[in-house]
Design brief:
The complex is a heterodimer.
Chain A lengths: L1 H22 L3 H4 L2 E6 L17 H5 L6 E3 L6 E3 L2 E6 L5 E6 L13 H14 L10 E8 L2 E6 L6 H6 L9 H6 L7 H4 L9 E7 L3 E6 L12 E6 L3 H9 L5 E2 L15 E16 L9 H6 L6 H8 L4 E2 L22 H10 L4 E7 L5 H16 L2 E7 L1 H4 L12 E6 L6 H8 L14 H11 L3 H18 L2 E14 L2 E2 L17 E2 L3
Parallel strand pairs in A: 1-10, 14-15, 14-16
Antiparallel strand pairs in A: 2-3, 4-5, 5-7, 6-7, 8-9, 9-10, 11-17, 12-16, 12-17, 13-17, 18-19
Chain B lengths: L1 H28 L4 H6 L5 H11 L5 H13 L13 H36 L2 H15 L2 H15 L23 H8 L2 H37 L3 H8 L4 H38 L5 H10 L3 H29 L7
Helix pairs in contact in B: 1-4, 1-13, 5-6, 5-9, 5-11, 5-13, 7-9, 7-11, 8-9, 9-11, 11-12, 11-13, 12-13
Classes of the chains: A alpha+beta, B mainly alpha.
Amino acid sequence: MTRWISAVAVAVAVTLAGCGSTEKKSTSATSDVLRIPYLADMSVPDPDVFYDVEGNSVILNQYEGLLKYADNSTKIVGALADSWTVSPDRLTYTFKLHPGVKFHSGAPLTSKSVKAAFERRLDVDNAPAYMLKPVKSMSTPDDLTFVVTLKSPVNPFEAYMASSWGPKIIGPDAIKTHAGKDFGQKWLATHGDGTGPYKLTGFERGRQYTLTRNDDYWGTKANFKTVLIKITPDIGTQRLQLQNGDLDAVVKSFPASELETLPDDVVVQKKDSNLRLLLYVNPNKAPFDDPAVRAGLRATIDVDQYAAEAYAGTATKSVGAYPEALLADQPTLPYKVDDAAAKAAAARASTKKITLAYTADESGVQRRVGELLQAKLKTAGYDVTLREVQLPDTYGYVKHLKTAPDLMLQTNTPDAAHPDTWARIVYYSTGGLNFFGYNDKQVDSKLDAALDAPEAEATKLYQEVGRRVIDSDAFFFLGNVKDVFVLRDDLEGVTSTPEYPWTIWYAPLKRAGT
Amino acid sequence: MIDLIGKRLVALVAVLFGLAVIVFVLQAVIPSDPARAMVGASASPEAVAAKAHELGYDKPLPERFTDYLGRTASGDLQSSLRTRNAVTEDLRTFAPATLELALSASVLAVMIGVGLALLLAAGGRSARVLRLVLVAGASVPGFLVALLAILVFYSGLHILPAGGRVTDTLVLPDGPTGMLLFDALVAGDPGVFGSALAHLILPAFTLALVPALAIARTLATTLQQTMREDYVRTARAKGLRERVILLRHGLRNSAGPALTMGGLQFGLLLAGIVVVEQIFSWPGLGLYLNQSIAFSDFPAITGTTLLLGTAYVVVNFCVDVAQAAADPRIRTV
């Protein structure tokens, strides 16, 4: 019996020692470790394969491209390239590389390593490879000069280079040492070799990823020695851990409705982003195959209500068919709540039973917008079923248009801050985010013409596309969604970029007083 | 006994075949496009078609079904569309955490269940109060119990962690099983052992609550009947103490129905794991399955479903064999 009691006593003591971590509320606040949660594992930390949102910060704090967007701006500036020029025929781009840059493996960055990284992206040929498909040839006149020649002018090419998913310069550790037979994909699934302020030193799927400060970084060195990305799938648990000091920030999907009830030692920062909430309309089946019935939806759209009630001030009214930063002088949106007009249009509808889908999101905000919209549509005379769907399922709708939902809410962001990267995936007849197969040949031809047109002409063409899309009533633009960062109040130096959604730069972050 | 084992093995294969068919039908019915999900929104229709061809999604349904069955039977679960690893490799990564949690929860369920049953069989006010508490706990949905437990023990009392398997700054032992308690013991690492134990308490208790009560109810009822049997009366007449009769004679002869109930409850426990792992950030199969569902990652969903299904069938198979060993009459069933 005594032995049993001793064993239990030891177990209790050891367990309490293990529990210690929960009692030290200020541990993270005094340590050199930054703790950030992810709601789910990222796919893979390989910049030539990764094409999601969850995981952006691991890629962007570890790898750099030739260009990037300036902090809190959509202005393109140099990253690994100090400067660049474009030939008058817009076919040749010459990048001058920053001298003295080293990869995490210690190898120096040269134009040959940039060329090898570009070639790898084309060899791997995964989702982000499309940005380099227009490349005809690449050359390296000297160690710090890299020249790209395109097959034909591509207006968004610089935007591609600055994109979150744009070409990142991967070092020789992956491209040569661990290339294997798959261009280093197996190795890069758990390792990294970039030039950024942090190195990937641990990748434990389902648990956490460890980023360690790159003390040889060529730019301003990071303040935190270690960043732990913790996989915490439940937003409620994230909130409690943030309040208890076990997390430093929640940067994605924090419920807008809870922002007002946070304790004093937690602060909220709202930053502009290119995220847009869209209402997709299925024009391929009744009742919205009738343009007059579709037009009636305009009278049910109450963007002020969505911004105030669903987003609790974390979204603003959309101006046109593109995120504002992407295109100047956009055709404006003709939405005005009018119950009588909505009822009259609904009366024409051949069926009143409709399905309104929304893609699943942890914050619950799309469901809330869906409920508000459902109420308005019911008042107009529709019998609306609200249904949550998973994002990958929505890709299949275009093959099953007759059984797809009638309406769908989804938040999207362009790949880069250029109108083509938005319009081509959302409005083009074969666009990947054109879920209900909107098909306007004029839109397609105008987008194709704009791709290599001179800037003024291209702008005019994008504006015309915007006008046609708005007039089609196949898409409704419900709001510009802000990036909402919920942080411990001692965290300083938060910088973000509208084009890199739900992502903060870890390097400038620091604790107050350090 | 060999007959029984043979029949149960045939049933196991049939159940797994049924599961495989169900998962395939679900995959065929849901209008998702995994090829598009993989290549991204900006990919050309040609690139999407090429990926669909590579993954075999462009083949006729019957051909896909026979391919799928053949591959699955040979243990090739394909690669995850999300992690890009072989699904078998992912399962090896995530299964130990689930196994550790499920085993701990099962042990806890049996301990609480048997303890409560003995208390109930012995009678007394404390047993009735305890049963009321457990009934109340078991009637609340698992996710609410989990959230309540986190609120009380993590947020309120600061005595237990809210999630994960171990404190994030600890280096995990590279042990043989992937189960941290065991591996930490083998490695002689009390820090990891203590932390792992602390992290295990809330999820294991949340999972164990419902099975514990079911086991307790079944066992208590059977115990009460058993304690009225003639041989128990004889034992009492011989002057044996009540506790000895209860433990030595009553418990053993009442174990059959409780064992069956335990096996059935294990299935519910596995179902609960998906929710519990999500809330407690437990990096096991439930979390892997949840993430895979959100990505329509059917190879991963299929692999996890088959593995969890196999675990359920194997546990019930073991229960059948244990029952047959305890009661020879069952061997002819």
